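User: I'm designing a mutation panel for Cation-transporting P-type ATPase and want to avoid disrupting the core. Could you give me a predicted structure to guide residue selection? Please restate the sequence first so the numbering is unambiguous.

Assistant: Good idea. Sequence first, for numbering, then the predicted structure tokens:
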Amino acid sequence: MTETAAPDLTPDTAPDPLDPLPLLRRELHTGRRGLSSREAERRLAVYGPDEVRRSARTGTLRELLRQLVHPLALLLWAAAALAFIAAIAVLGWAIVAVILVNAGFALVQERQAEKAVETLARYLPAQAQVIRDGQAQHVPARDLVPGDLIAQGDRIPADARLTEGGAEADLSMLTGESTPVERLAGPGLDGLSPFQEPNLVFSGTTATEGQAQAIVFATGDHTELGRIAALSRRTRREPSPLERQVAFELVFTAALVYAPPLQNLFGTAALPLDVVLLISAFPPLVWGSDELRRWARRRHHRYS
């Protein structure tokens, strides 16, 4: 097989796995004999290993401190300081409690995300049967690259399009379906989600019956499993504009209510303490609603 440059498989330019099979082979620069070992090594250097990428784990204390000096937390510390300066200890401690509770929730979420990624990584097999240089051979699954021809195993090692045969696949870890679905080599169907296409199999799922051969079109972070893992990793983020605005308004309100110069400037009198405590409850409500929105987005991605 002629050595060619590795195909560009970025999300915007990746070939459609439902293209006619001869076209898909050309787009992936492969053939019926599979890739050569040399070409596979070259593509591995380009695309990276076929594995779920893990975030670097940080110590619990370090992560907790990071949450306590988060830009949004710093604004709340400023509001708490203003409350203590004004001798309104109840408000100050209420804001401190909000900071600590938020830091605790963020730390728990971080650890849950790490565990979720570890769980997803365990779905991938250690070995895969691949056809290279026209011969079947076993290689570490992490060495698979787009364009490889693979034979069905118990665990599917990458996102692939069936080229021969058929199998029943258990997609429950991706779709939640309790029964295996039939997968056959052949043309795809228009208007279906990738998980419903009858000729596609996905990384980390299980083949329960049948014999099939498939061409790999996505590995690592570009697989459906990799995308889900990426969503789970996205727990470290900057505050949203709404969160910044709420925190700023909380600091401004605390200053306006309890700092006499500002009261004189704006012509305001001190608000009742229960009103200010109600204002201090806004940040956790905003954080909670934002986390609920992100959880819904991850769930929609998983079952769409």
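For picking mutation sites, this is relevant: The mean pLDDT is 77. The first strand starts at residue 127 and ends at 132.
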